[in-house]
From TrEMBL:
Organism: Paramuricea clavata
GO molecular function ontology, one term from the record: hydrolase activity, hydrolyzing O-glycosyl compounds
Transmembrane segments: none
Pfam families linked: Glyco_hydro_35
Lineage top rank: taxon: Eukaryota
GO terms classed as biological process: carbohydrate metabolic process
Name of this chain's protein: Beta-galactosidase isoform X1
Length: 126
């Protein structure tokens, strides 16, 4: 099994574990045309935040500003060219510490829509 597949599975399992640990639910009420989060009507308001474009030192500050602006979720790509710069060599430290980013989003009380790629169409120059 390729290491990138193993890493993706580990991230997926982490997100499921965090979700289950908090006993959250997100469903759609088709009769009222709305989302239900934990059984209550919920409006999803999201903005994009590419953690790999922002120094790790500023992540918490930016996430708190996103929350203060009234958003309740962030969307982020996973830039595999950052995490696997050459085949078989992986980078998940420093500004590329995806796990810490996911945990920080959770700590700030925001929801995360993770967009794993590998093609992210994120105006990235190689």
């Amino acid at each position: 099994m390729k290491a990138s597949t193993v890493i993706f599975c580990a991230i997926f399992l982490l997100s499921v574990t965090l979700h289950l640990a908090q006993s959250r639910s997100l469903t759609i009420d088709y009769e009222r045309d709305c989302f239900l989060k934990d059984g209550k009507e919920f409006r999803y308001i999201s903005g994009g935040f590419h953690y790999f474009r922002v120094p790790r030192y500023y992540w918490k500050d930016r996430l708190l500003k996103i929350k203060a602006a009234g958003l309740n979720a962030v969307q982020s790509y996973v830039a595999w060219n950052i995490h696997e710069p050459t085949p078989g060599h992986y980078n998940f430290v420093g500004d590329a510490d995806l796990l810490s980013f996911i945990e920080l989003v959770n700590e700030t009380g925001l929801l995360l829509v993770l967009r794993p790629g590998p093609y992210i169409c994120s105006e990235w120059d190689f």
